[in-house]
What does this fold into?
Amino acid sequence: MTNLFDLSGKTAIVTGANTGLGQAIAVALAGAGAGIVAVGRSAMNETERLCRDAGAAFSVVQADLSSLEPIDRIVADGAGIGERIDILVNNAGIIRRADAIDFTEKDWDDVMNVNLKSTFFLSQTVARRMLADGHGGKIINIASLLSFQGGIRIPSYTASKSGLAGLTRLLACEWAGKGINVNAIAPGYFVTNNTEALRSDPKRSSEILNRIPAGRWGEPSDLGGAAVFLASSAADYVHGVVLPVDGGWLAR
It folds into this structure.
């Protein structure tokens, strides 16, 4: 019987792969057989070790996605370790916290540039290659619970993740008929650098934990299965979905 989740022979670009959710996704895809092009601003020694331990080909691109400058070399490197780019995971993202009344233009632009602008243009560049050879591919955006909810004190993050959900649906509408699946994963409250401030605040941490039906914060490894599914042939007829992986948060 064919293993629908087998990614052997595929090449995946994963942005923000140096730590947290991006690292966990890269390791999960590697475990399913994909070669990994890990993109990030800092060293990725641990990610490389974990992916190579899984038997995956591995390449690193040091890149800051606050501008569009790295996009062409990311894609060139991705095409370099395999015959083509089969999977793109847009995970890179940043967050800025302040009351909306005090929020600065710089904090707005910094977040939107990484979380939304670079995601679109990297997807566009990868999709051009996928369309050119006619073999399609999978694009997975990392959205957020803030794609569905408002949140507090993170206006640009909420706007970017709401925009990312809309962008996922738009690209699915344009590219589904051309063999490219565009979907998103919306992580709940996970143990990552982005949630350190929340986990360090006893009141907020308790409020959050009490609402999660699963009764715990998510671990980055909890995201791997959803990523492998959306990257695999098991999801060939799945288009434009924003899949929550949230311990039941949105169900409550």
Summary: The two ends are 38 Å apart (CA to CA). Helices lie at 20-31, 45-53, 71-80, 105-133, 155-175, 196-199, 202-211, 224-231. Residues 105-133 form the longest helix (29 residues). The chain has one domain: 11-244.
